[in-house]
Amino acid sequence: MQLLTITLASLLSFSFAAPVASPKPWPADPNIVKPTTISQYEVSKGAIHFNTPRGKVLKTGNGQDWTTLITFDMPAATAGKTCELHFILESAATLSGSGLLDVFTSLAAAPGERTSWGPGNQRNNHVARVKVAQGGDATYQTGYPQVVKSFACPSGKWPIEVVGVYDRDDVQWDGSISGAYLKY
């Protein structure tokens, strides 16, 4: 009995001491711009959940869809440079369905918390379709716009909206370590 107790205690201490895989963080590159604001948009209500810690793109098939409004404050260092939009998901992110996201520019950044129809999502031009990967980088899909794969870096605030593609998609991420970012 004593041997069983000692063996069990040893196994338990080993399993608790084993390293845990950490989520894949933002790239360690000085030439990236992370979002300044991530907001969740409830499509059916027009509600904006402003400056949330998580991105959420959800299509349920019953009209209760969510998109994510992302705003980048472009630093002066990006002036005259070429930007690339990237999307990385940490390994602990939620990913179900097709994993396809459409990216749109927005006419204006999310203005703040809204409980119902106000400014809406301000969706503008379709600029990309990407396939996200848990614990990795998204890939651009051929046959769709790829405007933001390489473009003149914008100045000031640059807002975009990330939208699910098919009827049942769920992509959620920790905005402090992953999601959309710009490289220049």
Provide the fold topology:
Layout: H1 2-17, E1 32-33, E2 37-42, E3 47-49, E4 54-59, E5 66-73, E6 82-88, E7 94-96, E8 100-106, E9 123-131, E10 139-140, E11 151-152, E12 157-164, E13 169-174, E14 179-183
Antiparallel strand pairs: 1-14, 2-3, 2-5, 4-13, 5-12, 6-11, 6-14, 7-13, 8-9, 8-12, 9-10
What does this structure look like?
- This protein is mainly beta and 184 residues long.
- It has a single domain (23-183), classed as Jelly Rolls (Sandwich).
- 9% of the residues lie in helices and 40% in strands.
- The chain is built from one helix and 14 strands; from the N terminus they run αββββββββββββββ.
- The protein has one helix spanning 2-17, and strands at 32-33, 37-42, 47-49, 54-59, 66-73, 82-88, 94-96, 100-106, 123-131, 139-140, 151-152, 157-164, 169-174, 179-183.
- The strands form three sheets. It has a seven-stranded antiparallel sheet, with no helix packed on it.
- The chain starts with a helix and ends with a strand.
Provide a compact summary of the structure.
The protein contains one helix and 14 strands, in the order αββββββββββββββ. By secondary structure, it is mostly beta strands. 30% of the residues are buried.
CATH architecture: Sandwich
Order of helices and strands: HEEEEEEEEEEEEEE
Shape: globular
**CATH fold category name:** Jelly Rolls
